[in-house]
Amino acid sequence: MARTFLSWPVLRQLRSPDKLGRGTAVRSRQTDELAARTEAADRVAKSVCPYCAVGCAQNVYVKDEQVIQIEGDPDSPVNRGRLCPKGSASKNLVTSPLRQTTVKYRAPYATEWTDLELGTAMEMIADRVVKARNDTWQDIDDRGSRVRRTLGIASLGGATLDNEENYLIKKLFTAMGAIQIENQARI
Amino acid sequence: MAEAHPVGFQWVMEAKARGAKVIHVDPRFTRTSALADSYVPIRAGSDIAFLGGIVNYVLANELDFREYVVNYTNAATLVSEDFQDTDDLDGLFSGYDPETRTYDPTSWQYAGAESEGDEEQDHEMQRETASALQHESHGSGVEAHPPRDETLQDPRCVYQILKRHYARYTPEMVARTCGVSEEQFLEVCQAWTENSTPDRTTALVYSVGWTQHSVGVQYIRTGAILQLLLGNMGRPGGGVMALRGHASIQGSTDIPTLFNLLPGYLPMPNAKDHQSLEQWIEAISQPGSKGFWANASAYAINLLKAYFGEAATSENDFCFDYLPKITGDHGTYSTVLDMIDGKVKGYFLLGQNPAVGSAHGRAQRLGMANLDWLVVRDLFEIESATFWKSSPEVATGEIVPEECRTEVFLLPAASHVEKEGTFTQTQRMLQWRQKAVDPPGDCRSELWFFYHLGRMVKERYADSTDARDVPVQQLAWDYPTHGPHREPSAEAVLKEINGYEVESGRPLSAFTEMKADGSTLGGCWIYTGVFKDGVNQAARRKPAREQSLVAPEWGWAWPANRRLLYNRASADPDGKPWSERKAYVWWDEATGEWTGLDVPDFEKTKPPSYEPPEDADGVAALAGNDPFIMQGDGKGALYVPRGLIDGPMPTHYEPGESPFGNPLYAQQANPTSKVYLRPDNPMNPSPPQHSDVYPYVFTTSRLTEHHTAGGMSRFVARLAELQPEMFIEVSPELARERGLEAGGWATIVTSRSAIEARVLVTDRLTPLKVEGRTVHQVWLPYHWGEGGLVTGDSANDLIGINLDPNVLIQESKVGTCDVRPGRRPTGPALRQLVRDYLEETQR
Amino acid sequence: MTSLFGENDLWGPLDPTKDAGYGEDRPKRKGFFTDTSICIGCKACEVACKEWNDVPADHFDMLGSSYDNSHSLNANQWRHVAFIEQPTRAEPRQTVDLGMPVRAPSRPPEEEPGEDAEKPDFRWLMSSDVCKHCTHAACLDVCPTGSLFRSEFGTVVVQDDICNGCGYCVAACPYGVIERRRAPEGDKNVGIAQKCTLCYDRLGAGMTPACAQACPTQSIQFGDVDELRERADARVAELHEAGIMDARLYGNDPDDGIGGAGAFFLLLDEPEVYGLPPDPVVTTHDLSRMFHRATTAAAFMLAGAVVSFLGRRR
């Protein structure tokens, strides 16, 4: 062991200028080695807060492929490094133990969830989309106007998503003829 | 603002430290009020009366910014002789049809334009299709050169009409209607007008609760009128600022997931009027009008080209025929009622929780229980995914799990740090997010989900010979992917949104480079430039301290990286700044260019003195003093002859549910609001009906500590503990009147449902004196449901479906209710309580 | 014998860092100035603190005390935002603009629905409280293990690896700030004294403490204590100038009972209103005197014992 009796606190205290043992004399090795965990980050991703529309810039610190800290980006002309309680809780949001990480499936008339492989779920959803579209397709409406659409498929959401995602959502649904595509902006 | 947008509020605090006066008008004293210089309590639902009173104060005392008003607004424009105002018709404008509850706006037109565009003036269709939302950036599509009287003396000019319209909105009337004292009201009038000069500007900030009224659009219109009259639009420190509530709700309006819009505010074609590409484009470009919508053919064809790629050619009208056509109201509320009626098969919920977050929660959940299938994509197991096992309707017996056929897929979503892409914040600024880590487990981005769903649907239709399936087969869906999960490239999608030359692939730098011949494509014309010079401009992060106050090199704002819209108005008609202090964009005579701190919102070399030839239209018709370049006449609209369903000028109507008769007119409520009269959507009675059963006014809003329907806060421990329970705020007076105990429970009842909440007795709510009697208002946050770390009843269960006619947004910021001590009953007894109240109203 | 204690070791103005044995190259003393006149009560400080320091969230009950649901400073709450809804005093309204909003009665007094003839004006005070990082820190002085120590930044920090959970510090703190963590079960520091470290690890990296970094309105300001004291004086003067005569500083005076706090406040009312002790005194204030008396007594006793021993021997 490297520590000798000379590092006993009481001896350190008597030898040091900190004769009351309130500062330098009582620092533990852990204290001496303490460092901000952000210092050890492998990388910092430039991000934006996911809550309201103020658009506060965030720095996301990553270590060993885990998010270890999220805080405001001081460079931003919007928030100047500051965040509200929600923005400050962003790490808690993305690392919450309550997050769903697997697919849950509720069969018709079931009283409980069951598990499903993601790939299976995707195939099932694609089948249902095609079936609903085919079953409810309208070439013309009841006034005889050409409408080329389905009123059997609806969607709600987009305000929490990226522009690129909204773009693909609207593009796909429009090509499929689904028009009841809505989001929070209507609410 | 301090409540829902605390970090934005730092700028208000900074302004205050520099001497700005902050006034907060709200039904309840909030954290914003606590820091304001003065707080004005107001009756929920009376904002038009309040702001209309200020308009009257401005006009009656001639305090308007006259040079601005004459040159930059339509104040001088003459209106048709046939127009009759609400003064003449006791709360209605001319052209009202009680049968359809809509207007024929022919008589609202500018003088000489009465016969124009009758075909598009079908207001019933316009209401059904929320057409005003298209006008969000369109302007009202009026003719370029209407007759004007720049002395503002002609009784038919907009200025005089406006003056007459608001003459009855006197301080006494404001006090009677809004419950605001005359002294406080006049204090606001004085502060606002005194601070709106060449040297000073006043900002109007609203949170989007303003939109959640049966007259929501007209609320905002009143604010716009006031800001135009006082010369605060297009100038630094002025404007009307909407504080929107979701990270990219602006983006999801620009690149809409909305039934009536296509990207860049192009309207979804409707079956009646838009059966050909030409008809559709003409409806957008409005030949004869001024401004940049004249180039709509380029915007529209670039979109079709982006959607259908090589298949879209000039020979086949760029596949216009592939676009589905709308025939009426396909909004989220009518869709939910259609679900209850069994007309909808499948439903996707993408980061949204309508079981808690949409009005009339019971209707939402009953609708979901009557689908074939539901796909929920979220971070957490939200209430909209569990309606079949734990909703209030399971307790009441209205949803029986064993009898509910809806198949539910709950797919875990990637969070904001687990994918890359852009959000558009509330000031139209796009900011690119880098991906920090891979999403855990089966979590995936929406980009992944929709790209692969589209791929799989295309596979299923690959061999089809049905004409119906051709649009899917020809859909341009070829995006590069990467990684083990084949994540599509968000940057490739952003490049398509920006647009590029088809041949060379060169990204376009401005929407003015878009061609209408198919040689360029672009998915959202107003976003063109975000990939200027092939660089992702939204990813720019030049530190604020290294650039000007405008910070043009942080992110990218549409259009053309302009940070302040209509900023030509920051200079006087001659192109000089109104004052040194407020210099922003100006005409540089030496270089013959507009210049300044921001990208000028004007043709760069068009001089302020420019007068267009009489026969010009489109961009060429814009004069050098027409700052509102998206409006058909280049002027800010004090009066709206076209495009609004409920009238050319805002008028005070009582909310759909109110304990008061309308003090201003015989017409009680918005005569054109979109109502759904069905047994499952009852409304509480208002005068002249018996309204004592639900005697109190309630309003709802957010808490700093939570986010909307709680999906991103109730499941997050550090937020859940800050506001752990649903509560109701009541004044000490109401607590005494109803025997409510601080910290105890209260039950709140409307004709839709009854919910319970813990009682917070607080002086922050105060009874108001309205129409000579006392009215109690209560306040509810709406963040809770039965899921998450902290649970509680949902305020939205109390609210019925009654919509603004222009945009089909629900009136959820004001309603009537009863408040009684104690907890609500559960199970069937809950429905019985609600029925008992309803029966009481019929006695 | 000479005293173990130097001048002002336990009382009065002092540079606590130098006193704790740090050399001339030590950084300037760091602290917080919390200006409650611009606090919006958003609780970003509470969350940012917990996120950075991994402080557990374990309290999910509504207190019904305005918007305060975190109760007080304690082992799991190193920042605490107090919310005070108060009528202003009964004295007549001043004619000057108070700057802080006050709500005028908006209805005629004769029509009052309640029993009060005049409903009082109202204000909502918010204040983010934190460990004061006292110049004379009783918690540190009584700590028998050397777990609590004075950092080179002049702050008072618990060393989790040394604390044995004796709890002497808990009783010693004149503000009731420090506490042993009791819950949640299994948490790494249950049983250990816990409180604000002024983000000691962040300071070492040249960063701002998490709460001050997050604070949207800069109600919480971090910096060199000397400079913060000047800033605070200027801010009070500014508010007084604006007619806000209620503004006063709390904990900034090196001559007060704790030798001045490293974290001090601008308040808009009496400290008691915010749940702060009006005149806190370091609980080891009398230690020096007690020590002298005890040593004198011990010497006398020793002498007496020697005398009696000698006497018996004789």
What does this structure look like?
The complex is a heterotrimer of chains A (187), B (843) and C (314). In chain A, 28% of the residues lie in helices and 25% in strands. Chain A has 6 helices and 8 strands; from the N terminus they run H-H-E-E-E-H-H-E-E-H-E-E-H-E. The radius of gyration of chain A is 29 Å and the shape is elongated. Among the domains of chain B are: 9-243, Dimethylsulfoxide Reductase, domain 2, CATH 3.40.228.10; 674-842, Barwin-like endoglucanases (Beta Barrel), CATH 2.40.40. The longest helix of chain B is centred in the middle third of the chain and has 16 residues, at 446-461. Chain B is globular and about 75 Å long. The mean pLDDT of chain B is 95. Chain C contains 8 helices and 10 strands. Chain C has helices at residues 16-19, 44-53, 138-142, 168-172, 200-204, 210-214, 225-241, 287-313; strands spanning 30-35, 79-87, 122-130, 148-150, 156-158, 179-180, 193-194, 220-224, 248-250, 263-267. The longest helix of chain C has 27 residues, at 287-313. Chain C is globular and about 80 Å long. The two termini of chain C are 30 Å apart. Chains in contact: A-B, A-C, B-C. Strand 7 of chain A pairs parallel with strand 9 of chain B, so a sheet runs across the interface.
